[in-house]
Structures are given as structure tokens and as C-alpha cells.
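Researcher: Let's do a round of design. I'm pasting the C-alpha cells now; please hold your answer until I've finished.
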């Protein structure tokens, strides 16, 4: 028997997601092996993560987010931008402003002025700080850690194109000084001539490799850049995926406040993932 699972393919600046309507399915229906199957880029739909977008009694709409390895994650900025845009499209939330529930708490969000864009208001957070035991290697100018929903290392370099992301990103992501959970590693470099956007590349936990964009990592990077006096907020960042993410915030008293992430949350296509039901009723990829 072939079962079709309807889904939406969304992208936030190249960080892509399979999004499911939570009125038709629940997190209990998606064990890690099933998430890994649908996120597989050869045998599944292909994505950096899976989102289940569901009505919620307390916030109005809830984002259940999973990395492509099947592990649940508290927050993902680009997934939140995509969820906001799609929630408005599906009638789960108001385009002018909604509250998006996540495992990291509720967030105010709204649809942006341009088509398929959204804005996410993030909680105040402590300014990036050095991590004892983590030092820059040759070619790196500075490293600091900030927690924006999840922990992010920000590494300042002259040119992100020259970073051996698989080696250095993996090393920093698993650095013993960060504890068992580790952190995402975000490498940033100044704008190219003729451009006003900083550049960023991210090695992301759960994906365990480079992603084309990371929303909360971009927020950490923008605050780090402003804190160091290298640029004034708002700041624009161009990820490996190409589109621009903009960050607005106020810095003072050791905190970043009134933090907004603005960027793409675009519906790419609607699809149906086909499965063959096994004897236990769970789906297997057709």
C-alpha cells in the first residue's frame, strides 16, 4: 500500500526544510528514522531539517523543529522565518503579527514587506564572549560565543572562501571547551568591494556539515560585528545560499535587546512524499 504524505518545501536563504501541516500529522508520527528518510537528498525529499507547524492553544501556532539527523532542536531562525510565512499562508497565524511557539520559548513574528519574507523578534541575549580554551588559529582574527536560542561560535577571518570549513568547522563544533552539546561554528568576513553585506559560512550541529544559511548564527555574527566596532546595526549578511539576512538590535549593558532577524521564508513547492506501509503501519520510502 502506498501512502502519500503532503509536504511543503521551504527555503530561508538556502537553508531548506520539509514542512508539514500539523493539523494532519503529529510529532509522534515522526520518529528519527522517518525524519532522516524524508530529509535524505537522494532517497527522500531533501532538507536541512523537518518542521511540523501546528495550532497551539497558548501561542496560536507551534513550530516543532528537527535537524536532518532526526534530533529535535530548540530553535532555528530560518525555520522560524519559513514557518511564519507559511503559517500566514495556511491561515494558522496573522500576517501582521503572530506568536510562534518553539522549544526555546515563544517568539513574536510577522510577514515582511516583500513577497515570502518574514521577521523574527528574538529574546535579549548576552553579548558574545571568548571561551576559555578556544583560541584563534593562524588566519583567524577573533572567536567568541553567543547563545541565540542555540550556542554559536563566531569566527572572524579575512575571507570566508579560504576557510577549510569541514576541518575547522567540525573541530570547533565539537570542541571540548563547549561541553557535550557543542555549538554551531559561523565564519564571517567583511563585505567585498561594491557590496554592503558581510559574508558568513556556517558549520551546523545536527546537519554536521555546511548549511547555506543559519538565521540565529547570523544574529550572533551581526551582534559580534557591532560589538567589535566593525559595523553599525542594522547589518546585512550574505550567506552561502546568496540571499541577504538583515539583523537589527540595540546593544548596551552587556546585552543585545530589541533583536530582529529579517529574511527569506519562501515556499518553493508543494509535494507528496510516497511511502510503502510496513507491517507495523509505519511508512517506508517507496
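Researcher: That's everything. Go ahead.
Model: Designed sequence:
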Amino acid at each position: 500500500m502506498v501512502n502519500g504524505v503532503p509536504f511543503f518545501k521551504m527555503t530561508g536563504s538556502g537553508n531548506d526544510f520539509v514542512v508539514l501541516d500539523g493539523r494532519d500529522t503529529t510529532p509522534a508520527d515522526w520518529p528519527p528514522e522517518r525524519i532522516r528518510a524524508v530529509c535524505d537528498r537522494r532517497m527522500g525529499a531533501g532538507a536541512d531539517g523537518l518542521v511540523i507547524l501546528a495550532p497551539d492553544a497558548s501561542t496560536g501556532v507551534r513550530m516543532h523543529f528537527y535537524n536532518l539527523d532526526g534530533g529535535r532542536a530548540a530553535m532555528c531562525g530560518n525555520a522560524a522565518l519559513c514557518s511564519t510565512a507559511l503559517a500566514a499562508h495556511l491561515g494558522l497565524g496573522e500576517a501582521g503579527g503572530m506568536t510562534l511557539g518553539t522549544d526555546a520559548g515563544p517568539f513574536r513574528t510577522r510577514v515582511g514587506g516583500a513577497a515570502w519574507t518574514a521577521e523574527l523578534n528574538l529574546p535579549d541575549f548576552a553579548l558574545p564572549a571568548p571561551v576559555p580554551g578556544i583560541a584563534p588559529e593562524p588566519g583567524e582574527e577573533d572567536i567568541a560565543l553567543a547563545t541565540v536560542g542555540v550556542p554559536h561560535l563566531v569566527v572572524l577571518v579575512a575571507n570566508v572562501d579560504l576557510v577549510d570549513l569541514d576541518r575547522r568547522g567540525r573541530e570547533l563544533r565539537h570542541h571540548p571547551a563547549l561541553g557535550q552539546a557543542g555549538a554551531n561554528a559561523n565564519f564571517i568576513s567583511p563585505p567585498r568591494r561594491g557590496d554592503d553585506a558581510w559574508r558568513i559560512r556556517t558549520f551546523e550541529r545536527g546537519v554536521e556539515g555546511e548549511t547555506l544559511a543559519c538565521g540565529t548564527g547570523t544574529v550572533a555574527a551581526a551582534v559580534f560585528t557591532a560589538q567589535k566596532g566593525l559595523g553599525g546595526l542594522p547589518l546585512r549578511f550574505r550567506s552561502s545560499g546568496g540571499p541577504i539576512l538583515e539583523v537589527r538590535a540595540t546593544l548596551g549593558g552587556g546585552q543585545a535587546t530589541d533583536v530582529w532577524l529579517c529574511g527569506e521564508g519562501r515556499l518553493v513547492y508543494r509535494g507528496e512524499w510516497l511511502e510503502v506501509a510496513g507491517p507495523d503501519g509505519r511508512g517506508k520510502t517507496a
